[in-house]
């Protein structure tokens, strides 16, 4: 069994048996373990990438001129366009492809909704304060840092017991309650960074609260997720969909969490954009008609058993993962596959799926996988894909009394035995007068089917039956008062509360990770010319973004600002505008090599350059970002060339085969030409 | 002068003189008055249109299962798609066309920003409460309703003085302060709808307030507009734009106003979507290079003088309006023209521009025009286009001390006379010891250029000059201590605070009005067949939305669900998905005529129907929504046909000329075929 690496045979047999029970499969796929780096090593260091972003105004702290507000960022023009493109891709990849019902719901939400969903009671972090300064900390993070610091301190000598206790805290802090955290603080005598005592831990709700309306009586919150807004609309969507199941609702919008410790970059913000899908289905049928499309897709999975055994993630096809019951059902796996393809289309390189461990999942969740992307801070949860069962619709239905069910029509009508209760109201009224209603209610609603049957057997003998009506009233029921008949009815279907699969996308986080993953630094001009002894002064950053999400698809550059060149530039720019291709013109007096470098920094995949030759023979050059190669193309063919390249209907290789290579390109590529 | 209707010759001469001063034009354009309806008469009544919207789930009250929250609405799938399409059109019409810098800023805003902008002090409504029930009213609305009710009551007899007083209140209530409103309540003895006394009026701030961060010390608001977020980023955008002026920032997003009296429909909501542009320019140069593109566009204008004279709006070209100084400057007029074209592209039929009267405008605004759309409630402000001067950037700069200027390079360097102040620190230090710094400061910064010149004249004689330093210290300045030299410097430019033109779009309001304006009810089937005596039972609603914003461009219908039909349907649907054309399939068993009617209700411009003929000769029918005509088209040509029709590259007439008319269409069109 050499192919099964990193897992003992015994464990495998146990798991196989366990999975076997669920799916009745016995053949076990080969486990293909996958080494994952713990952190992304960003070219030139994380700071280099962040510097490029800051310098080129991808994003910056909001309200910076007022000193900024933690956890709030603005997007500049490049990031705004990337964000819009990522959402458009999301819409075509998910909404259009699956005929989902995209709706738009509000950020402001009345308190009642979040009481039902459990957010008012449970959406909180454990916090503590420095008793002197009042500074606040998220206690789980603070404890984790404390443990890591002591465990990694080479100067600290500690006994085995303390070391083991610290390790235990580090591993379990994410699931500790506030009492246990308080005990930990006491046990280790933990103090604030300033050396002061800490206040007893308390829970802080992460939702922003406000008042709706002038009376100030309606408490409201800003939504911390989009899901509840979609659940509110379940019945409307179900009707709009003609009562057909399954179907999915989708929404895109802002969400808000009053984070105690917002992180730098776009990783943990107080206001951020989510895109969420709620796929409603029959809990008895979690197959998906299109699962076949992704069945053979091989993806990196980190199931909970591997995590618990501190073993590496593995490569499996989604079909294998479903067959052995590792992923709970085909619909969940289908969405994992679609999410994987979406992330790849955005340009993500390092993606894996981590299964939630049992103690991480909400009690109602059946199975949950996070799509994680590698970034400089480690593996980051970017998309959560959860089977939330029927929980949400049920709690809202319970609290509002509103019907939140769908109706399933049986393939064939089914027979159902039931009791018909024929009461003689006149006889009952005459016998019981003012108590008649209570007696009637008892006969019609309180008696079980079995009790009816028993009573009828007695009545059939002609005798009366003594019955105790609700409230303790004892009455005699005579045969003339009631007749219970056993009947068989044809039933065509049943109402059920749908089960929900929820893929939830943190768009900002995804884009942050993609930016880190596609960032690289081009060999400097000198190094590229062979003189590697020279230090490369001229670090040129490139974002290798796919054309689909790049802010601008093409930069239009006049080689120089001259009268025989600028009319061509304006003409080409107008043609791009007319065809809806996002372009930018760089007609600054900066040398062309530098302008190419600045274009690369924005992730623009192509440059079109107008030079004196354009005026002579009507050709321009097209430059490809990553190879720095250029071809000469007739002006009239520029728009279709860029269009097909961006749509990936044509590759750069095809263009090179069709058009002559531009000679100066090799030199310009490394930025020598000034 | 018969062409000048509705305005006296005297008034015209006065205005001409007044405008002449501003623009030095003497020829007056012909005034072309325009009768505007006061309210839109919606086909079948407003309720019919709202019923259709509700029935087809265009939008519905948010949190309806919890009883709803006033002023919060959710968009269903159709409206969500229309909204996205309207924003995409906005982006290509404005952002792409003008190379604007679109950015994305946060809803959460710290208090300081809105103190600077004046929102904390001034963004409020006057309110009152029923003293018994605590029910709240917006007092201006309540007073207006009170006046209208009494003035229109045929049973009430009132003297001329009271009538005139009520009329006066009705007209001026929008600009009354709370004292005057209180006096009005007292004068007329106005009580609550329940007949109780009213509390004294008070101001209620319309911004939603919250706390940012766990310490609860940072007060924050949800933005009531996007403008401030754009102003925060001015300097970043200016740098990103390479320091070039003019340029525009743009943003799209949610805004929030805690309205006291939210209205039904989408007219006045508590959470709504805005799209805003801030065009930054040199206050000395408000020309626009592309003004020529809209100069000859004739638009309905309602200038303030016409309003004050209770005269009709007029038709003028934007060129005429600028030439006579009616619209303040070409950039403002350019944006009015672009806004007009955008609204027309969305399908708006009734549009006019109303100029703000002097008492409506903010003190800093130079000129302001609202694009109004006609709806069942009257003319509704949907886009505000204001020249806000330099106000916003100046207040933020004043409060933060941050530079918010742009730099203007003069065409030619200009000479500027200035004084160079050469101080001998050693001599000053020796003479004044501890006071030396104060003396130095006086010489270098406190003396004006003229004072320096006078002082130098005395010093040139060799005498000392007595000077009074800040704080009252008297000192003698000797010739050896200082020398003031008059120098002439070449100055290449100057820093200035840009002026701002702000077009601000209420997207929800625009769409609401467009829906009302394009809604119509088709002649019933019977009436269309000539039997007009029959009442039309079968009212068929149509939204004549342009393809550009319709939620679905095409509905794909199998004539019947059969094995020789469904494969074609799936194939055509897949082709639409592949080409990114939003489509929907209606394969319910409902008769085709009914399905067409349902499609019309959603505003879908085209239907493709697969029938048994498709399987025989490979053709399908394409149906056009408004004419109900159908042509037969080969299946392979369906996608390009729909594509070019939607892009308006081809008209329906062209298709009719090219392809045979479908015979059954005339009957199906009116829904007879069952």
From TrEMBL, chains A, B:
Pfam families: HGTP_anticodon (PF03129). Its EC number is 6.1.1.14. GO terms for biological process: mitochondrial glycyl-tRNA aminoacylation. It is an enzyme of class 6 (ligase). It comes from the Eukaryota. Residues 207-535 form the Aminoacyl-transfer RNA synthetases class-II family profile domain. CDD domains: GlyRS-like_core. GO terms for molecular function: ATP binding; glycine-tRNA ligase activity. Keywords: Aminoacyl-tRNA synthetase, ATP-binding, Ligase, Nucleotide-binding, Protein biosynthesis. NCBIfam families: glyS_dimeric, PRK04173.1. Belongs to the class-II aminoacyl-tRNA synthetase family. This is glycine--tRNA ligase. The lineage of its organism: Eukaryota, Discoba, Euglenozoa, Euglenida, Spirocuta.
């Amino acid at each position: 069994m050499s192919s099964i690496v990193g897992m003992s045979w015994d464990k495998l047999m146990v798991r196989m048996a366990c999975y076997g029970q669920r799916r009745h499969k016995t053949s076990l796929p080969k486990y293909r373990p996958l080494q994952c780096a713990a952190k992304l090593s960003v070219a030139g260091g994380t700071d280099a990438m962040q510097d490029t972003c800051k310098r080129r105004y991808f994003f910056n702290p909001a309200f910076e001129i007022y000193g900024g507000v933690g956890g709030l960022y603005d997007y500049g023009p490049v990031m705004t366009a990337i964000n819009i493109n990522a959402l458009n891709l999301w819409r075509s990849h998910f909404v259009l492809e699956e005929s989902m019902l995209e709706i738009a719901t509000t950020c402001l939400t009345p308190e009642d909704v979040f009481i039902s969903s459990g957010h008012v009671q449970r959406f909180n972090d454990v916090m503590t304060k420095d008793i002197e300064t009042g500074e606040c900390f998220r206690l789980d993070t603070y404890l984790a840092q404390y443990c890591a610091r002591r465990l990694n301190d080479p100067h600290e000598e500690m006994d085995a017991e303390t070391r083991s206790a610290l390790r235990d805290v580090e591993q379990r802090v994410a699931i500790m309650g506030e009492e246990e955290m308080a005990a930990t603080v006491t046990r280790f005598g933990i103090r604030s960074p300033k050396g002061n005592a800490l206040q007893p831990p308390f829970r802080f709700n992460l939702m922003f609260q406000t008042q709706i309306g002038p009376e100030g009586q309606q408490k409201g919150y800003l939504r911390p997720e989009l899901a509840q807004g979609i659940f509110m609309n379940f019945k409307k969507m179900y009707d709009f969909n003609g009562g057909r199941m399954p179907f999915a609702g989708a929404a895109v919008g802002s969400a808000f969490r009053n984070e105690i410790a917002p992180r730098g970059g776009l990783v943990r913000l107080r206001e951020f954009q989510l895109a969420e899908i709620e796929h409603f289905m029959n809990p008895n049928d979690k197959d998906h008609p299109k699962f076949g499309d992704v069945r053979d897709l091989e993806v990196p999975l980190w199931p909970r058993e591997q995590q618990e055994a501190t073993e590496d993630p593995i490569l499996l096809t989604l079909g294998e993962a479903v067959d052995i019951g590792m992923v709970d059902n085909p619909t969940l796996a289908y969405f994992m596959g679609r999410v994987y393809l979406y992330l790849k289309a955005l340009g993500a390189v390092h993606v894996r799926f981590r299964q939630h461990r049992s103690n991480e999942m909400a009690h109602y969740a059946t199975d949950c996988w996070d799509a994680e992307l590698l970034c400089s801070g480690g593996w980051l949860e970017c998309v959560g894909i959860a089977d939330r069962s029927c929980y949400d619709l049920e709690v809202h239905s319970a609290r509002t009394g509103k019907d939140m069910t769908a109706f399933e029509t049986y393939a064939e009508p089914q027979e159902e035995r039931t009791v018909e209760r024929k009461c003689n109201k006149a006889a009952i009224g005459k016998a019981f007068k003012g108590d008649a209603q209570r007696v009637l209610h008892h006969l019609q609603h309180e008696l079980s089917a079995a009790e009816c049957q028993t009573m009828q057997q007695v009545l059939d003998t002609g005798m009366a039956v003594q019955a105790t009506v609700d409230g303790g009233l004892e009455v005699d029921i005579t045969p003339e008062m009631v007749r219970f008949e056993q009947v068989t009815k044809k039933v065509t279907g049943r109402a059920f509360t749908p089960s929900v699969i929820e893929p939830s996308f943190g768009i900002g986080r995804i884009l942050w990770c993609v930016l880190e993953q596609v960032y690289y630094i081009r060999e400097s001009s000198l190094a590229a010319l062979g003189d590697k002894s020279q230090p490369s002064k001229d670090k040129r950053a490139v974002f290798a973004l796919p054309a689909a999400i790049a802010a601008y698809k093409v930069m239009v550059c006049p080689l120089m600002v001259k009268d025989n060149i600028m009319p061509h530039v304006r003409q080409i720019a107008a043609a791009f505008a007319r065809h809806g291709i996002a372009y930018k013109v760089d007609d600054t007096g900066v040398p062309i090599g530098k302008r190419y470098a600045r274009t690369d920094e924005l992730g623009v995949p192509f440059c079109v350059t107008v030079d004196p030759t354009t005026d002579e023979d009507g050709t321009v050059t097209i430059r490809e970002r990553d190879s720095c190669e250029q071809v000469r193309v007739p002006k009239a063919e520029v728009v279709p060339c860029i269009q097909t390249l961006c749509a990936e209907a044509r590759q750069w290789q095809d263009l090179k085969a069709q058009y002559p290579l531009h000679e100066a390109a090799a030199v310009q590529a490394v930025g020598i030409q000034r």
